[in-house]
């Protein structure tokens, strides 16, 4: 296929160099955005009298046909084209001849690709927001179902204080609400149209960039044409947001994997989200969660690739920038796949409250509450803390727990102890009495559930 730019050359491009240069095998996924951008551009060219109304109408109509044919499987992308922009233009010209050749007036592939990628990423970011919402719904469902089911809360992976299962998983819900607002912010930042920046310096034609921006749903135009074609900050912002989503999913995965182990057995994953072993008949492996944890590194890699590609290139467009696409597309595909399996994996997992409760009763996780009770009776906190530490050490030595240590023994440590202590240190009291805002108490869980409901309805 003869190159569009062949005029200046006396030899054609070497075959390997041609393959190396071509981006059609990955940028063809932006065909819809490319055509939409071109339709807006052709409409504007006619409105400004740069091309005739008749030519513009034919161009727009034919571009719409091309889109329809691509979507209906009637037209295949030509893998020999250099990129998606060249393919669409060549197809247009094939269908309507010289009139098609008028489309590229007052435009360059540099602003064309910049607008295509913004449109594409805007759509994908919104789709990913939808997938995170599905995950939020799954977490919400489990939290509601197990609102007051007690489990051990950990620090340093050591049993620390009793919490409810709802409180624990709602922590993840809060992270995912921030992930959504982060994506929304990134979309806001990228939603300015570079179309009309042309190669780098603008154009001598009297174009209307505000018109194309408005037609394409942008909030405005990029104010500097050099920045318009050189900026890929929005890719970095999105990749950083994707990396944060993956980091959250990975932390959650790690807990799912631990909780599903025989050592914890706090949950059981549904058969449809687990795999067996080729040799050990008893195995039920949490592969989905492990893969999500593993794929996190891949998305971080995509962010690093983008940052590194951009760090050394001078203004304005350089071919290095073609490398922006594969990493961000890979990150999008990965994040979407991960969210798509994670949400139903959470929705279908079985929570085992009895095992959690048992674990909560074994680790002296009510020791802080015993100390707090002594403080409420007038003892300075440090003294209470020391007493309880000694009592815990005594219990460990004698294979007892705070609940089973007899009152006479308590009194040997200090006369202040009385029978009320047993009620004070019951796991239920420990949880219910945590009344501080944002704590594990019931009113706080209700407030969190309400926040998620409102967030989802927004
Ligand atoms: N395929 C190119 C890319 O993705 C399109 C822009 C080409 N511009 C140019 N001046 N060669 O970056």
Give keywords:
single chain; 458 residues; mainly alpha; Fumarase C, Chain B, domain 1; Fumarase C, Chain A, domain 2; Ribonucleotide Reductase Protein R1, domain 1; two-stranded antiparallel sheet; two-stranded parallel ribbon; 6 strands; 62% helix; 5% strand; binds arginine
Radius of gyration: 31 Å
Are there runs of 5+ residues with pLDDT below 50, and where?
none
Q: Shape, please?
A: elongated
Task: Specify the CATH class of the largest domain.
Answer: Mainly Alpha
Report the mean per-residue pLDDT as an integer: 96
- The termini sit apart by 51 Å
Name the CATH architecture of the largest domain: Up-down Bundle
CATH superfamily of the largest domain, called what? Fumarase/aspartase (Central domain)
Give the total of beta strands.
Answer: 6
Bound molecules: arginine
**Which oligomeric state applies?**
single chain
Spatial sequence of strands, sheet with the most strands: 1-2
SSE series: HHHHHHEEHEHEHHEHHEHHHHHHH
Major sheet size, sense and barrel closure: 2 strands, antiparallel
Description:
By secondary structure, the chain is mainly α. It has 3 domains: 7-105, Fumarase/aspartase (N-terminal domain) (Fumarase C, Chain B, domain 1); 110-206 and 217-353, Fumarase C, Chain A, domain 2 (Up-down Bundle), CATH 1.20.200; 359-457, Ribonucleotide Reductase Protein R1, domain 1 (Orthogonal Bundle), CATH 1.10.40. Helices cover 62% and strands 5% of the residues. It has helices at residues 15-21, 24-27, 31-47, 53-71, 84-96, 109-145, 165-190, 209-215, 225-230, 233-259, 287-311, 324-348, 353-360, 367-376, 381-397, 407-413, 420-424, 427-432, 442-457; strands at 150-155, 158-164, 192-193, 220-221, 267-268, 350-351. The strands form 3 sheets. The protein has a two-stranded antiparallel ribbon. Strands 3-4 form a two-stranded parallel sheet. Strands 5-6 form a two-stranded antiparallel ribbon. A hairpin with a 2-residue loop joins β1 (150-155) and β2 (158-164). α6 (109-145) packs antiparallel against α7. The radius of gyration is 31 Å and the shape is elongated. The mean pLDDT is 96. Bound molecules: arginine. The site of arginine has 10 residues, from α6. Arginine is lined by residues 23, 27, 83, 109-110, 113, 317, 319, 321-322.
């Amino acid at each position: 296929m003869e190159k569009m730019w062949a005029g200046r050359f006396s030899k054609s491009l070497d075959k390997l160099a041609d393959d190396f240069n071509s981006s059609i095998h990955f940028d063809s996924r932006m065909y819809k955005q490319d055509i939409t951008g071109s339709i807006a551009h052709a409409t504007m060219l006619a409105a400004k009298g740069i091309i005739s109304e008749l030519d513009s109408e034919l161009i727009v109509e034919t571009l719409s046909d091309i889109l329809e044919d691509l979507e209906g499987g009637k037209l295949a992308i030509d893998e020999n084209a250099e990129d998606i922009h060249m393919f669409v233009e060549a197809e247009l010209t094939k269908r309507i001849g010289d009139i098609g050749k008028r489309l590229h007036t007052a435009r360059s592939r540099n602003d064309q690709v910049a607008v295509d990628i913004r449109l594409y990423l805007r759509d994908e970011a919104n789709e990913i927001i939808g997938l995170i919402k599905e995950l939020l719904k799954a977490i919400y469902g489990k939290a509601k179902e197990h609102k007051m089911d007690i489990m051990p809360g950990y620090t340093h992976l050591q049993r620390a204080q009793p919490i409810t299962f709802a409180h624990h998983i709602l922590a993840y819900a809060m992270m995912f609400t921030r992930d959504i607002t982060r994506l929304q912010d990134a979309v806001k930042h990228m939603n300015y149209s570079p179309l009309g920046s042309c190669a780098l310096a603008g154009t001598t034609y009297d174009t209307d960039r505000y018109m194309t921006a408005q037609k394409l749903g942008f909030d405005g135009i990029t104010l500097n044409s050099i920045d318009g074609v050189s900026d890929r900050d929005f890719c970095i912002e999105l990749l950083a947001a994707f990396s944060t989503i993956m980091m959250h999913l990975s932390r959650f995965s790690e807990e799912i994997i631990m909780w599903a182990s025989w050592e914890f057995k706090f949950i059981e994953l549904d058969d449809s989200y687990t795999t067996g072993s080729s040799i050990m008949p008893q195995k039920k492996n949490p592969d989905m969660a492990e893969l999500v944890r593993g794929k996190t590194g891949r998305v971080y890699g995509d962010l690093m690739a983008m940052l590194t590609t951009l760090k050394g290139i001078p203004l304005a467009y350089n071919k290095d920038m073609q490398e922006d696409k594969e990493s961000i597309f890979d990150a999008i595909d990965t994040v979407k796949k991960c969210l798509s399996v994670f949400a139903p994996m959470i929705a279908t997992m079985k929570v085992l409250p009895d095992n959690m409760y048992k674990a909560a009763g074994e680790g002296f996780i009510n020791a802080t509450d015993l100390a707090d009770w002594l403080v409420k009776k007038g003892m300075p906190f440090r003294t209470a803390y020391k007493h309880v530490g000694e009592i815990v050490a005594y219990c460990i030595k004698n294979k007892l727990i705070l609940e089973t240590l007899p009152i006479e023994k308590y009194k040997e440590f200090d006369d202040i102890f009385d029978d009320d202590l047993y009620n004070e240190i019951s796991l239920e009291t420990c949880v219910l009495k945590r009344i501080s805002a944002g704590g594990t108490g019931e009113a706080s869980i209700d407030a969190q559930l309400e926040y998620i409901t409102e967030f989802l309805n927004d």
